[in-house]
Amino acid sequence: MVRWYLRGDMTRWIFIILILPGWLLTAVRGQTLGSPIRHSPVVTGGFGELRPDHFHAGIDLRSKSGKAGDPVLATGTGYISRILIQREGYGRTVYIQHPDGRTTLYAHLSAFMPVLQAYVDTIRYATEQEEVDLLFTSGQFPVNRGQVVGYMGQTGRAYGVHLHYEVRDRTGFVALDPFRNGLQIHDSHPPSFTGLKLYALDDKLLPLFDLEANPILRGSSARIKGDTISIGAWRVGLGIAAEDKLAENRFRTGIRKMEIRIDDELVYSFAIDQLDFHLNRYINAHLDYGEWVRTGRRFHRCYQIPGNRLPFYPEMKKAGLITLNQKKAQKVNVTIQDAAGNKQQLQFWIKRSAEMKEPPPRLFQYRIPFGESFTHTDQDIQVTIPAGAFYETTFFQFSRQETESGEVLFQIHHAETPLHQFMTVRMALPQDAGEVADKWVGVYLSGDQFFSCGGKVQGQNLEFKSRQLGTYQLLIDTLSPEISPLQANLDRSAGTWRFRIRDNVQAADHIRNLHWTIHLDDQWIPGEWSNQEEVLTIRPGKGLLSRAKKLRLHVWDDRKNHTVWEAELQH
Predict the structure, then answer these.
(1) Contact 92, 108 (CB under 8 A)
(2) Which of 54, 90, 107, 466 could form a disulfide with 164 if both were Cys (CB 3.0 to 4.6 A apart)?
(3) Which run of H or of E encompasses 543?
(4) In the chain, where the domains are located
(5) Which residues contact 285 (CB under 8 A, 6 or more apart)?
(6) Could you write out the three-class secondary structure of 446-499?
(7) Any idea what DSSP says for residue 345?
(8) CATH number of 482-568
(9) If we measure between CA atoms, which residue out of 279, 71, 289 comes closest to residue 175?
């Protein structure tokens, strides 16, 4: 019952608050979100974890059985605002808009809830598009907390069956920590140190050389052998490798916070509580990118460089810089913290060695100051790198080598230096390119593998873009993709067919090299791509299977090399 205590406009406000306590007050206060799965969560990937070219924007939750099909639940009341299906990336994804403005995201799904799957399939078949990006209004697909919205899978760029779960703010461009937004995980296990590096820095704070030490756990804290590090340098910054093992499982994730104190004075810290997608690639200015490329180890670079725009660091006078003293060792305390607030400390002493180490000479053709653009033009190549592509002053190397077989290799600096923006490369085509000019691609070499950056013919040149430094060359691609069925025949009763599809050239991350269409008789049908396995899965559905007679799979690559595979269906 509603009681009227006041008259006029104030009375109407009290009436509204009394009769709308649920939805409206939830929107104002913010509802408590729950778990997106029914079983006890097993975290295999943590929020803010260091990943290639990005911080992990959500958490990864393992399936109960290790297989696809676990129900995925809405973590709060709201409505499905967006459906995304893409071959790579997040794969099959549900976005739920909540009354308080937050959005939750559920990625790598094997399927949506039945009514939503039927709706999406209708759109896909009508438009003959495998990839769709659909937006919905609040009245179309409302959901309640705990309602099944999909099923766990491995679609998109996923390594193993799992759910990638995110919480985003009102803008949709900032990821929030799921552990601070309802998800409950018991964890009393502290994080651990796995590596320590000291970077000797010149007077411009550019690295000269580094020295590595091994943290050893002693009691409740970590130490190093001998306790004191002597290094022949005037000033250093630290590199810290660390991980967090949740008490309930064997998987290791990243840390959330770090503090470094020199003789009890705070000189550096960071805290990863939220992630702005516009700034996420600046992870390459935060970590030791060269170490990651060489060894796969991920060190937090604990001093700030000019091109680091991440908002994780409070304003500090020294910003991680440690000036060394030859006569007095300084005490260093490094504290790391995980999502649950568990901490671990590393303590050691550091001093300047009496013998100053001579830094190795820098070999380079060009010094590119931070913030400046750069263009190199040679007889058969032009490389243009825009301002802001490098995170610090770079000593750029370039060389040209002709092999015995007549191929020309271009060493465009080296892969251990990251690029924030795309460089543009123009390579001169051979004089006899003629009718096959459109078959040439620009590729970079990683080990013994070629990665295509595509390219467009501009006069007598091939122009392409890349964010990868290293060894490049021109390659002519006239080979068609290979299609290999992974079953002996197309048995109708199987209901699912799988094909391995491979091309002679892999693709850089920003290029889509493989394309296909699938038809049962004259009916277009979608497929499901697994990038990890290079497998295309086809699930036609019983209605189509009952009357279809032939499957036709047409695959082509970026250079329009085609392969067609056809077969009759068997009973």
Answers:
(1) yes
(2) 107
(3) helix 542-547
(4) 31-180, 192-352, 366-476, 482-568
(5) 301, 305, 307, 308, 309, 310, 391, 392, 418, 420
(6) ECCEEEECCCEEECCEEEEEECCCEEEEEEECCCCCEEEECCCCCEHHHCCEEE
(7) E
(8) 2.60.40.10
(9) 279
Reduced 3-state DSSP string for 97-147: ECCCCCEEEEEEEEEECHHHHHHHHHHHHHHCCCCEEEECCCCCCEECCCC
Could you tell me where the beta strands, DSSP code E, fall in 169-321?
174-176, 192-201, 207-213, 215-218, 221-224, 228-231, 235-245, 252-253, 257-262, 265-271, 274-276, 300-301
d(C-alpha 112, C-alpha 128), whole Å = 19
* The CATH homologous superfamily of the domain defined by 31-180: Glucose Permease (Domain IIA) (2.70.70.10)
**pLDDT digit string (tens) for 236-259?**
999 999 999 876 677 889 999 999
pTM of this structure: 0.90
User: Strands, E, within 413-455: which ranges?
Assistant: 423-428, 440-446, 449-452
Query: Contact at 8 Å (CB) between 77 and 144?
Result: yes
Position 20 pLDDT exceeds 50? no
Measuring CA to CA, which residue among 37, 26, 95 is closest to residue 71?
37
Query: pLDDT tens digits for 69-113?
Result: 999 999 999 999 999 999 989 999 999 999 999 999 999 999 999
The pLDDT score that the predictor gives to residue 1 is 30
Q: Which two tokens stand for residue 226?
A: 């001998």
Q: Are residues 33 and 75 in contact, defined by beta-carbon separation less than 8 angstroms?
A: yes
Q: Place 21 in a pLDDT band, splitting at 50, 70 and 90.
A: very low
Share of the chain above pLDDT 90, in %: 75
- The yes-or-no answer to whether 31-180 and 366-476 have a common fold is no
